[in-house]
Amino acid sequence: MGDAAANLVWRGALAYLAVFYTDTFGLAASAAAILFLVVRLTDGMTDIIMGMIADRTHTSWGKFRPWIFCSTPFLGLFMVLCFTTPNFSDTGKLLYAYLTYIGLTLAYTINNVPYSALMGVMTEDDKERTSLSGFRFAGAFVGGLFVMGFLPTLVAWFGGGNDAKGYQYTMYVFAGLLMALMVTSVATTKERVVPIKQTRNSLRSELWDLTKQSPFVLLPLLSMTLFFYYRNVISGLFFVLVFAIATWLVRRMLNRPQSDKSGTQLDMLDLLTNKPWLILLGMGFLTMMYNGIKYSVIAYYFKYFVGDSLLTGQYFIALLVVSIFGALCTSYLARKLGRRNLFIVALLLSSLLTCGFYWLPGESVRYIFVLGCTAEFFAAMMPTLFFSMLGDAADYSEWRNGRRATGLVYSAGTFVQKTGNGFAGALVLVVLAGYGYDGMDATTIEASLPGMQQLMSFIPAAFGLAGALLMLFYPLTEKRQQQMNAELIARRSAIQSHHQ
């Protein structure tokens, strides 16, 4: 239920916000692309801050559930505001878009970072986490199914030809449903894994210390964004220079005595020396780029390349029904193949099938649906495996360093997912703008059709294949994971017995 609620926002923004901004709200594609990239920079700090705050929260409800409950009304509010079209000037609309989209991502951070981390403290067993992740993402796809499948119909029904009004009233319905589902999720879950408190300083002092470490997060993100958007020699040199300096500073920090490092620095170093987490970080970005590009271009693809925008909703319904089965099959297939191997197989098969879109003409609707659904069955396994394996990275940190920061591990995971989503949406708009696309000028459509073909086929497939290659280096085998879990359970039992 929690993921069904979250995906009323996530899938709605992922699938429709770009086309809403360009075709209804009236933003230029290039301006919307910059908006998506800039807002993702704010997520760099807010996700990490929220993870640290959640890890240091101690209530009778647990660490994470209070934050989910308190942030839910704000999440519903900003979802409505993002899809509201005020009668402002072009500059006023752009400013409004920035404010509301930043508000939405901030509310989503406060809600979803603790929600994602909740799975890591509901059970100690990695197989249970994989099963739980399967049910979680089945719920996510149900929420996405509702938004993607019925949003065009609801917009048309509420708007009566006025899309701006239709979007706004549709979001009222989604916001009410979101709050009911999220509150139910909070009321019916329990946090069971309780690590020993290890923080040496107050939350205020550690957050202040985090501001000193903020360049480690913001500068690499800024360099990535500039290189992504401008793709020239200067942005490339800046990218290389920033990462070289960051690497040198991290090595210097590692060589300092343990007693001289703050709690924040220890948390950051735990992550940066956690090989499973680093690989999963890259996997989260690549798989989100893969899925995000495909979902972001679908509305354009069916509206212009296929020539029937009403098929968009039907296609989303078909994809998400298949996704539910893919997510629920993940646990069974993971037991047979192992999660690492299943991840690689899913990436390869889904990417190769996606390449086939390039050769399908717009009138081959039946084949478009068959190919898309087959590729989506395997793509649905990617986020299911990713979030279950983040719990393993938290286990690895506790096993290796004696410190467990579940919220921080998952906050980085949700951040890289949102970053990948932002870059995916921006890349779609950058490619379309490169082909001369203007949502308010019908004469530009024909020239942009090849770009839509590329965005449905080879461009996302390249990210999927890169992910399969990266996953070959993941170090936690099923046997090693079982040994690590057994040691951790024994350690926790010994510590609890000592304290009693």
UniProtKB/TrEMBL annotation:
The chain crosses the membrane at residues 13-39, 66-88, 94-113, 134-157, 169-189, 236-254, 275-293, 313-334, 341-361, 367-387, 408-435, 455-474. GO terms for cellular component: plasma membrane. Keywords: Membrane, Transmembrane, Transmembrane helix. GO terms for molecular function: symporter activity. It comes from the Bacteria. GO terms for biological process: carbohydrate transport. Pfam families: MFS_2. The keyword Membrane applies. InterPro entries: MFS_2, MFS_trans_sf. Belongs to the sodium:galactoside symporter (TC 2.A.2) family. This is Glycoside/cation symporter YagG. It comes from Paraglaciecola mesophila. The lineage of its organism: Bacteria, Pseudomonadati, Pseudomonadota, Gammaproteobacteria, Alteromonadales.
